[in-house]
Each structure stands twice: as C-alpha cells, then as structure tokens.
Design brief:
The chain is of the alpha/beta class. It has helices spanning about 15-25, 30-45, 50-60, 85-95, 100-115, 125-130, 140-155, 155-175, 195-210, and strands at about 1-5, 25-30, 65, 70-75, 75, 115-120, 135-140, 185-190. Helix content is about 50%, strand content about 15%.
C-alpha cells in the first residue's frame, strides 16, 4: 500500500514524504533516488547515457531497495554517492529512456505491494500506483522552490530558478511518466507552510481515510 506524493522540483516532496513516513510508521520510498542508482551504476560501468537499450538492460538487472530512509544498490547503501553533481546530471539523462522507466516502475510496484510506503516522485499517483488510496500533489511558487533549492545547494536563486524552469519543462513534456496531478489527488500549496505543517496535514488525511 502506498501514499503517493508527487510534485515539481523544490515543492518539498522529500522532506514531507520522510516526515509522513515517520509519523505513520511507513517506509519512505524516494523514486528519484532509484533513477540516481541507475545513473550511478551506468557511470561506474562507463555506459553511454544516450543508449536507452543498454541502460534498460542495466536497470532491469539492478537490485534496488530501501531500509528505512536509506536506499541500497545491490545490497549496499549508496545515499551519499547518488547525491553527487555528476550523478545528478546523469540521472536526468537516464530517466528519459522508456526502458529504464519500465524497469523502475516495475520495481516500485513490487516494493509497494510488499509493504506500506510513502512514495514521492513525479508520477507515483498517475503511473506507478494510480489506485493509491491517498494521492497528494505538492506545489509551491517558483520563487519559493528556487529559494529552497538555492539554500540546499549554495547556488544563486536566479541560477536555480533557471534550472527549475528547464526541469519543469522536461518533466511536463516527456512522453513517459510526465509530471501532472492525478485527477483525484489532493493539492497542497507548501509556499507559506512549514514542513511540519504539511506533514501534519497529510498524516491527518491518511488517518481520516483509514489509510493509517
């Protein structure tokens, strides 16, 4: 079973999903981290990031799982490695290939079927788990999203805003797993809310619906 939390970059998905998982005793599933694992494995093997066939074969063969808040690749924790700038850039490239997305969606569904998860990403409620009993779409103003990411990375707000605009355009226009809110999702604008306030609101929704 899964609580699906989707939204654009900088909307607060990771922080909120972790918080909701802890509040409800669920496991946190970071779908973006799974694509980062594929990117890390591809870089380690010196694969062409434009070769969808080779990347798809790689993705199907990887063992990716979660232990509480920690993601593991082939049984080893890789949280630190997958957050490097090199892997971040590579992940954006590998995630566009349908072969890779098919492999990751299958793995995400397997995990969800075997436990209780709070999963965050851009297509959890629309593609991975359209039957989720609670779908939340987080939003925030572009300025606020840029400010948050700039605080995390140390880059300028203007620079991050440009990157977010590009990322939003790619995410919304891609052929497979495009970013959009599910028709039955609950939209939460996090611009003027603290992470704790958002977590509390979603946890309350889960309890009202008998999900937790």
């Amino acid at each position: 079973m899964v609580i699906a939390i989707d939204g654009p970059a900088g909307a607060g998905k990771s922080t909120v999903a972790r918080g909701v998982a802890r509040a409800l005793g669920f496991t946190y599933l970071d779908s973006g981290a799974m694509y980062r694992c594929v990117a890390l494995a591809a870089l380690d093997r010196h694969l062409d990031l434009d070769d969808g066939q080779a990347l798809g074969e790689l993705a199907w063969g990887l063992d990716i799982g979660f232990d509480r808040d920690t993601i593991q690749l082939d049984g080893k924790p890789v949280e630190g490695k997958i957050r490097s700038p090199e892997v971040t850039i590579a992940a954006s490239k590998v995630s566009v290939h349908p072969q890779v997305r098919q492999a990751m969606v299958k793995r995400q569904r397997e995990l969800i079927a075997a436990g209780n998860y709070v999963a965050e990403g851009r297509d959890i409620g629309t593609v991975v788990s359209p039957d989720s009993p609670l779908k939340v779409f987080l939003t925030a103003s572009e300025e606020e999203r840029a400010r948050r990411r700039a605080t995390e990375t140390g880059a300028s707000v203007a620079e991050v805003r440009d990157a977010i605009e590009d990322r939003d355009q790619r995410d919304r226009s891609r052929e497979h797993g495009a970013l959009r809110a599910a028709d039955d999702s609950v939209e939460v604008d996090t611009t003027d809310l603290s992470p704790d306030e958002v977590v509390e609101r979603i946890a309350a929704l889960a309890r009202e619906r008998g999900v937790a």
